[in-house]
Amino acid sequence: MIDKIKQHIEEAQAFNEKNKEALEQFRIKYLGSKGLLKELFAEFKNVPNEQKKEFGQVINTLKSVAEEKVKTIQEELENKEEAKGIYGDLSRPGEPIVLGSRHPIALVKNQIIDIFSTIGFNVSEGPEIEDDWHNFTALNLPEYHPARDMQDTFFIQTNPDILLRTHTSSVQVRYMENNKPPIRTISPGRVFRNEAVSARSHCIFHQVEGLYIDKDVSFADLKQTLLYFTKEMFGKSKIRLRPSYFPFTEPSAEIDIYWGLKTETDYKITKGTGWLEIGGCGMVDPNVLKNCGINPDEFSGFAFGMGIERIAMLLHQIGDIRMFFENDVRFLEQFKSSI
Ligand code: DAH
Predict the structure, then answer these.
(1) CA separation, residue 33 to residues 25, 36, 39, 43, 314 (Å)
(2) Ligand 1 pocket mutation, candidates 204, 212, 304, criterion most atoms within 8 A of CB
(3) pLDDT digits (tens, 9 = 90+) for 64-118
(4) Per CATH, which fold does 104-335 belong to?
(5) Would you say 329 and 117 are in contact if contact means Cβ atoms under 8 Å apart?
(6) In the chain, where the domains are located
(7) Ligand 1 pocket list (CB less than 6 A)
(8) Which is the closest atom of ligand 1 to the Cα of 284?
């Protein structure tokens, strides 16, 4: 009996007819519901105990040889068929395409651009490696000005005139030097500060700068623009401008939005006050206008600067700024559904 099965194995192995009908017959003969294997498995109970092991092994071998044969010849036949048309079988399921996702910072940046472009702001950019003039001096921060200490700066060691920009306010200067008023521009970009990295601050982050220069621009225009922005961005319509100091604006203010105190996270992010600072702003200092070739007797304007990570953390309830820079796909994939 066992020898007989071994012979079947050899026969099955030798089978090599490459046409559908012969293959189907082969399949029925060995694997069909009334086929050889069915019979042999039924026979198993009649086999004497001492032969059971070997018997079991050979019928299993026969089964896998027959199955493998059917599979390979079937594939060969299919491939041949496909080769006939350039596209193969068009009804076969396609390869799944894994969609990427935008980085949350890019998403928020694009949202900000959309909101400001609706009210006529264009987008401008400047270099990340800046000179002293554009980052500090033109912004009313001459050498040895104590306010330079507000921003810990990365300098290029061999040339103290070159640095990594500490804020996007440098782009204001470049834009005013190269464009005549009326000016309405926002400048998103990466900035660098020599700060210890923690859950709340990073040595690299993003800001968006806004600049509006025209005749008779007033503080009321600034406030309305910011109010419009916070409504569009956060759906919040209560803001507060807290008097502050920046060398490049006079008067200057810090922008707080009323976030509310509904949830525990609200308590955490607003430190229990309900208010949250999102940036700085003010009326462009006449000295800055002069430094950039704009006559302060003819034109006035406002400027503001906001942190993009801050806004993204608020919107998406992200508790640690380092997440933005770690490129952990498990974090990034969560933004797939946002466009
Ligand atoms: N550059 C400031 C900073 O990085 C933010 C800022 C404040 C920008 C006031 C402005 C402004 O344009 O008017 O801290």
Answers:
(1) 12, 9, 9, 15, 65
(2) 304
(3) 999 999 999 988 888 776 666 667 678 888 888 877 889 999 999 999 999 999 9
(4) BirA Bifunctional Protein; domain 2 (3.30.930)
(5) no
(6) 2-87, 104-335
(7) 167, 169, 209, 246, 249, 280-282, 303-305
(8) 13
